């Protein structure tokens, strides 16, 4: 397997609005991040993925960009950004920027021009279509509810927006759009950024006829995914982007966020010979607890979880590269969703972290994960800020007449604001995030769960993350080693081997709060063993042929 810095790296995701407020206005900002750089250095991460910090009216917290070459006023200035980059590089940390180019803000200059008249030179930068029989051009649904089309009086046509109406989709079939985007990317690379995380990048090529989506009986709008996810020209566009914008002779890192991609499709994006991207964020695991739409929660089995992980691990092995994540700014907190955020919060957070850092792929840590931050339950919908959550409540409760408690239950489990409450730095006012009034409430558990407490407790999740990160850096078997699952059908334990040359590592993870029996398969023989890491005090001499794993216990062994 070929070597690359982005395979060896551990990435830390910063959601700028919620990380650290430097000036007391209640909103996280660049100076705030700068003030916490030593924290990141001490954690040991190699790369920061910074959520969008470009100028934006914030309809979707910066994922609606009105100027790609300017900094959002609330976050600071371009000078602040230069200082941030310098501060990161001084500490040996690379910076990956969010690249949001499936859509712009409706306040972007291109769109202001585009909506002006049908013959404006920017008209074709977006998708404009006349209505059909007095309704939208097709029945596609927006990811944030309602139609994906917005009527615009000025020219009596509709424009396409797969996300909010303030996020019109760019028309990538127009070569001018592509050239403008590549020029912008090169501009940032020249400023010294080390790569891009590309927002819904597999949505940029749409089936040209924009066909009607198959809908259930009585369903007005339907997700037209098959007409824009991995669309007809997607690989052509990404290869062109790679060639024209990404290969300036410097090694950078690229991650494509890709809902609706199978491992087979992923290989077309990340296959080592394909010259497109380094890795993708897959969504198959994120869909494990939903039926139909994400709000409709269903219980999942560990065997299903293992089947998904195993499929991605083995399909990409030797051919491409995985990203490894269990949460981000769009997903609930991993310890609440896949672990136990009550009695076994610490144990289960460490167990999940063990998995993330011992599978094959690049681990992504989302801010606060390293101290075991949990989901939040605000009692009132008024306390929520996310456009997706607010639209859901409006559509289902206010306009749809559904039971508010049921909808709140879905929001508690899946709402994106779970991950967007402020980073918990200490047990003082507003968790040390701001001395003003935070833009979104702090999780009330900040008095127990915070960085200060974590630094004082030698057994904290934070110190365990530091250990894992160091371990991965020191032992290339964790990066480049082959992966093979064992105990495939075990319903409580996920276990696998990593091997590189003569090195053999064994990972065992109990995903439940009841004890579980691990029995080593007969064919694995060994003459010696070393307990490398675990989340409980354990007898290093214990016989690993048969072990009772405690609640959420994780162990990593080296076999001789
Ligand atoms: O997300 C795209 C995406 O498809 C999801 O993760 C989405 O947030 C989820 O399905 C909603 O339930 C990206 C960004 O990560 C997200 O924050 C943006 O809102 C979205 O694109 C639009 O830019
Ligand atoms: Ca601020």
UniProtKB/TrEMBL annotation:
<feature type="domain" description="Glycosyl hydrolase family 13 catalytic">
    <location>
        <begin position="13"/>
        <end position="420"/>
    </location>
</feature>
<keyword id="KW-0326">Glycosidase</keyword>
<dbReference type="Pfam" id="PF00128">
    <property type="entry name" value="Alpha-amylase"/>
</dbReference>
<comment type="similarity">
    <text>Belongs to the glycosyl hydrolase 13 family.</text>
</comment>
<dbReference type="InterPro" id="IPR013780">
    <property type="entry name" value="Glyco_hydro_b"/>
</dbReference>
<dbReference type="InterPro" id="IPR032091">
    <property type="entry name" value="Malt_amylase-like_C"/>
</dbReference>
<dbReference type="InterPro" id="IPR017853">
    <property type="entry name" value="GH"/>
</dbReference>
<keyword id="KW-0378">Hydrolase</keyword>
<dbReference type="Pfam" id="PF16657">
    <property type="entry name" value="Malt_amylase_C"/>
</dbReference>
<protein>
    <recommendedName>
        <fullName>oligo-1,6-glucosidase</fullName>
        <ecNumber>3.2.1.10</ecNumber>
    </recommendedName>
</protein>
<dbReference type="InterPro" id="IPR006047">
    <property type="entry name" value="GH13_cat_dom"/>
</dbReference>
<dbReference type="InterPro" id="IPR045857">
    <property type="entry name" value="O16G_dom_2"/>
</dbReference>
